[in-house]
Amino acid sequence: MSAPKGTNVTFEDLETPAPLVDLAIVDANLKRMQDYCDSHGIRLRPHIKTHKSIAMAKRQLALGAHGITCQKLGEAEVMADAGIDDILISYPLVGKAKRLAALAARVKMTVAIDSEQALTTAAEAAASAGHTIGVLVEFDSGAKRTGVVRVEDALALARKIAETPHLTFAGLMTYPANENTVAFVNAARAAFDDAGIAIPMVSGGGTPDAFSVHELGVIDELRVGTYIYNDRMMIGAGHASLADCAFDVIATVVSRPEENRAIIDAGSKSLTSDPAGKGGPGHGLIRAYPDTVIDRLSEEHGMVDLTHSTAKPEIGEKLRIVPNHVCPVTNLHDAIWVEADGEISEWPVDARGLTR
Amino acid sequence: MSAPKGTNVTFEDLETPAPLVDLAIVDANLKRMQDYCDSHGIRLRPHIKTHKSIAMAKRQLALGAHGITCQKLGEAEVMADAGIDDILISYPLVGKAKRLAALAARVKMTVAIDSEQALTTAAEAAASAGHTIGVLVEFDSGAKRTGVVRVEDALALARKIAETPHLTFAGLMTYPANENTVAFVNAARAAFDDAGIAIPMVSGGGTPDAFSVHELGVIDELRVGTYIYNDRMMIGAGHASLADCAFDVIATVVSRPEENRAIIDAGSKSLTSDPAGKGGPGHGLIRAYPDTVIDRLSEEHGMVDLTHSTAKPEIGEKLRIVPNHVCPVTNLHDAIWVEADGEISEWPVDARGLTR
């Protein structure tokens, strides 16, 4: 797999704050998930929201992924431009039919809906494109986010999809995949059977419990994003170990005003304010000083409490920091540095900031 | 003041999520702060970290601002490229002398330091550029961020600055300006007098208490950023009212899975996870539905609790949302939409993502 070309730098020359990705860990994470899915007969459809990178998406496809998942049209447009031709938008599109039509005219599109308004968007887009769009009905498995909460609503939407020209009912979708998923799917199967509507497949998402979705027995397709890089949240969730975390933010100590306080040049504009949950306290883990805590952030400052660390970093020292939640961190940076075979080169974050 | 040209759109056509700025409120906020500073003989040096926009910086300068403040070299480079010729980097630069030298060779540069390492960077840059760099010594007024904590350390650094070729001791700097600032400055004046070193000026920062800094009696220069747009934090701090908030994120309701839950298409990748502090609960204020609470965010979803609102937004409805903390929100978006005289046009966020 060829990599995007970028200026090569050494770690010493890297200007901070800078995201640095270990490609060997990425590849191991990708392979582990693909092998898992293959061994259980589950189709893997990686979510690109984590990396927003054409090159990373192509690595996932080269290993056997069955298309990709995007959250927003802007992400899908970038990936379609790059030649990726099977895209699920796992998000209800409302009133953006023209852009969806343009995508459907050139690549295989699937969308998720949970309302008649989102169904109308898909119907308008498919009619305008003159191409079929697959439509999943999203249901709520407890996240209380998007997704219908009642089986009868899922059935009513599926029926309307099936009746709409150029739309195909592609199945059911949820996030996350869990015990509630099983209960909903089983109830849905009974109701859909009675109505004479087949459920082609069930798509479930979420890295934290990815490696046990086969036990649920109802998941045909897995949508996961964070697994490519992992982060402190994934460590806290038991999905990954520190050795599986591929994405660090490199920061420099710029001040040591007191014995037990260091200031780094990465704040909320580099690390985000997202907490790590069970992944630990503070705003990221400093690999070389695991007993320190990045206890406060302002926009460009990270305040590091050194009280419980006998080793104290010096001004000018570069630190590798595992972020709490890598997905919004990627979205802050126009490019990442990728370390492979002892070389460091710059890769674009192609879909950065494309939230529309 | 001419505005950058961009495609004009109507509010109805605006694709969401989208940052929308009311230029009349911006101008009122800028004028209010400039008038305040003028009336108290304080020099205003606006911090561009909030807007990261060349056009906005030029509006501030046109009203009488005395140069600008940047937090990072990348911001300063963009502003210097645009012809802004008096820039303070209110942040300790460590090991980036070459880029600072390139700036000092073409514009009037001032930097803040709090360590010998940062002093060395400034000295190397000034020597390499062959141009004088002004150096402020940052002290800690209680934020426990950067800044020396002892007067004797400030004095030692000032002495070294004065002894270094091409460096000028430009004064003392702190954030925020408060009662501790007064105590430190008074103690410093006594110690510096004894040492025969003049303190040319004192620079203080922070929008929340900006309108009372004259009462401190020691602030010569004011660095403020958030005042241009304001946000829920500034409302909570008593600096602004809702009518002074110029920057909204426009989002669309994309799902209404239950009577009392709406989902909007703005999550942490559009609004950030920053809390509002005393500005109120949740992740932003929906202007038209002030009794709702955006109680949870995922990356592209905002979950809105409608329980305490008799009016409930419908799917497809566009909502104006006042963000909790506008500075990191700006940094998520490559462009803002600016509403002026009934027209909406796109302005670039020129220094977005420039954290190095």
UniProtKB/TrEMBL annotation, chains A, B:
EC assignment: 4.1.2.42
MF GO annotations: D-serine ammonia-lyase activity; D-threonine aldolase activity
EC category: lyase
Domain D-serine dehydratase-like: 246-339
Key words of the record: Lyase
InterPro entries: Ala_racemase_N, D-amino_acid_metab_enzyme, D-ser_dehydrat-like_dom, D-ser_dehydrat-like_sf, PLP-binding_barrel
Keyword Lyase carried by entry: yes
UniProt entry tagged with the keyword Coiled coil: no
One of the GO BP terms on file: D-serine catabolic process
Stored Gene3D superfamilies: Alanine racemase, D-serine dehydratase-like domain
Pfam families per UniProt: Ala_racemase_N, D-ser_dehydrat
Stated family: Belongs to the DSD1 family.
Protein known as: D-threonine aldolase
Classification lineage: Bacteria, Pseudomonadati, Pseudomonadota, Alphaproteobacteria, Hyphomicrobiales
